[in-house]
DUF2799 domain-containing protein
Amino acid sequence: MRIIASALLLILVGGCAGGLSKEECLYADWRAIGYEDGARGAPTSAVSSHRQACAKKAGVTPDMSAYLAGRDAGLREYCQPSNGFAVGSRGGHYYGVCNGPEEGAFTAAYQQGNQLYALESDVARTSAALDEAHARYENIEHRISHAEVALVSPETPHAERLDILADIKNMQEEKRRIEHSFRPLRVEHERALEELADYRAFLVTEGPYPGAMDVTRASY
């Protein structure tokens, strides 16, 4: 508990890689710092950032035995399959820090979570593209209506009417192009939704990792 509390304190104060202050370097609990780095799956290069920061700011060298002991404890927490799934499902990066028998289960879970993240991103992307097309369509309809009002206004000079007619023609062509894009965009979005639903159903029935059930409850 003392290690966890110290690590949480470091996170709140600003103990990210390379971000230790002079005071933090002088009074550092290197076991807690190692635990924090391990628990978040930081790459092995994290300690180099701490070493450089503390050498520059305080002339302090990390206690490597304490740091590595803490890091090993943190990695035991990080390298659980349930956490691998969680990291992958939020699009987190895995730095290959898990070793030994647990690595295979972790990476398998991570890949399952990452696949879920990719499918959810696909749904979000296709939904945004569809929304953008609808927004462009509404905007151009508004512009055409405004131009048509100006076209019949008695205050509009004859020379300007010709330009307005040309603008209306161009806008109507653009409107038709947008209309033609709706169907393929809808098809792509529906395909993305289908693939996501299928994969979530797979996770519910086949996913062996804790946390998969909770993630799949989200809906679009």
